[in-house]
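re: ur question from earlier - yeah i can do the single chain one, its not a big deal. heres the input i used so u can compare w yours
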Amino acid sequence: MTLRKSFIFYTLLTSLCCSVTYAQKGQSYPIISPNGKIKLVMEYHQLATADSTTSAQFDVYYQTNGKWEPILSDTEIGIATKQEQFKNLTLKSAGSVKRLNTQYEMVSGKRKLCSNQANESTYTFVNANGKSLNVVFRVYNDGIAFRYEFPKWSDQPVHIEDEYTTFNIPVQTDRWAQAYDPGYEDFYPYNNNGKGEKSQEWSYPALFKTKQLQVWYLISEAGNSEFNAASRLVNNKDINRYKISYSAGRKSFPQQGDMSTLPWKSQWHTVMIGSLATVVESTLITDVSEPSRIAQKEWIKPGAVAWIYWAYNHGSKDYQKAVAYTDLAKNMNWPYVLIDWEWDVMGNGGKLEDAVNYAKSKGIKPMIWYNSGTTDWSDATPVDRMRTREKRIKEFEWLNKIGVYGIKVDFFAGDQQDMMKLYLDILKDAADHHLMVNFHGATIPRGWSRTYPNLMSVEAVYGAEWYNNRDILTNKAAVHNTTLPFTRNVIGPMDYTPVTFSNSQHPHITSYGHELALSVVFESALQHFADRPEAYYALPDAPKNFLKALPTAWAETRLLSGYPGSHVVMARRKGTKWYIGGLNGLEDAKVLQFSLDFLKNKEARISIIQDGEYDKSFKTKMLVWRKGQPVKINCLPRGGFVAVVE
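and the output i got, formated as C-alpha cells:
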C-alpha cells in the first residue's frame, strides 16, 4: 500500500465548530451495484504533506471470475469556485446507501422502455473555510455516475471555475478519444499512450479498454442544466491522468459567466462499465437525466427525412430542388423533408410558403433550418431568429401558422454555460409550440432527449457532409464508421446524414452494402438520408424497399459483434421485427459472424441484402436460421449488409 493511501489518524480542524461530529479518518466507503458487478470505494484520508491537508478520492472495481479487479484507481474529486476551493476536504458525514429503481419510456433512442438500478450514497465535505460540498455517487448495474452539490452557504452568485476531478488511467490502456473541438467533428483514433496529435484536450465520450481484462469503460457527462457549462478531458500534465476541465467555447457569443445562485448541482459525470455490448447498449446517459417535461408526446414522431445539402453543397435557395426532395420523400415513403439554409431567399418559381404548401399537398411534413446567431463566423441565412426568446416565440408562432413540424438549428458558439441555457430554452419553447428539434454544429447529447423528447437528433459528429469539405473521409470513412457505434453514438442520437451511393464533392469508397447498413447501425430519430433523388430511384427493388420501410426509433438495441475500427453488427427491434446492420471497416474482405440465440423462437426467417460481386452491387438472399446456428455473411473490403429477421 502506498504512503498516499495509508490510513492514519487526524486532528479535527480547530477553525470548525467543535459541536460538529466528523467521520473517522482512514475509512473506506464501498458502494456495490445492485447486480454485484461494479464496486465504487470512496476513500477519505490525510495526505502525507507538511501541512497535513485532507483529501478524498475513489476507486472503481469490476467483478470477474469471482474477483474484484481494479478498473479506475485514485480518481480525485473536488471543484473550485471563484469564491471557494474544494480540493483539500474534510469528511463531515457519509450518508447511508439507498436503492434507486429507474424506469421510464423514451419516444426515440436505442430503447423504448428503459430500466436500471443503482445504489446511491451522498458524502458531505467541508473545506478549510467551513463551506460544505456534497458529492453524490451512484453505482448502476452498467456504470457509475457522480456529481457535486453546493448547499446554500452564500447569498451571492457562485462562479464555477474548475474541477479537480481526475481519472487515473493505467499505462498502456487502449483508448479511442477525439481531440477536443467545440463542434465535436473529428475522428476517434486508437492509441494506447494518451498522446494527442493536435493537443492534450479530449472530447466526450472517451472509450477505454483495460490492458489485461476484457472490460471497457466510456467516460462522458449528462444532465447539464442551464446552470452548468459543459466540460472536457485534459491530460497535458500527465498523459495518464485525465482531468475534467471547462471549455471557453468559441468565444463568439457574449458569455454571461459560469455562475449560479445556491443551492447548485453540477452535471453528472458518467462512466459506463462492462463488456463492449454492455457499454453500447447502456442508457446511463438518459438514466441520470431529468424526467420528461412534456406531458403529451403524441405529436413527436420519429421518421426519415429527405435532405438536400449533401448533393449540392448548398441549401434550399432553389424552389425546384425543394420540390424534387419533397417528391423524393413522397416516393420513398419518408414522412419529412428538410428545407435547408437560404430558404429566406428562395427563388426559381416559388418562395418558402410555396415549398411548405407543396410538401403538405403531397402528405409530407416540412422542417426548416435556422442559424443560431451565436457565432461571428457563419452568416448562413436566416441568422439570429433563435437567439432571444422574443424572437423565437415570434418565429415559432409563424411556423405553427404555416404548417412546419420541426426545426434544425445550426452553428452554436461552444460549450459554455450560456450555450447550455440556449439549447434548453430552444427545446422548451419548441415543445410549447409542438416543434421537433435537431441541433447541428452543436454539442454532444447530454440526456436532454429524455427531458425534452422533442429533441430528435444532434450532429456533433464527423459525418457524411464532410465529403463536401475535405478528401480525408474518402479513405477513413470505413474505420470511422465502425468506431462511431462504440463512441459517439453510444451517448445519444447522431445525425451523420448517412446512406449515400453517388458522390458529392469528394468520392467515397465504401461499398453500397456498407452505405445501406449505416441506416441501421447509426441511431437518429430523424434519419436524414443525404443522397440526390436519382441515386435512390436507381436502386434495385430490395434496398429501395428496405429504405422505404425502415423505422428510425427502436424498442430494443443489441450489439451482436464488433470491435472499434474493425467491424460492427448491430441489431435493433421494432415491434416483432429485428433489423440488423453490419459494417466491415477493414481494407480486406471479411466474414461477419454473429449469433441470434437471444431470440425466443427456435427458428426464424432472415432476409439479407449484402455486398454483390463488386462494391456498387447488391446480392439478396433468404435463409432459415435455427437456434445454435451462427449467421455468417461475406463482406467486401469496406463492405456491409442489412438483414430483417421475422
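The chain has three domains: 3-287, 305-460, 462-646. not sure if urs matches, ping me
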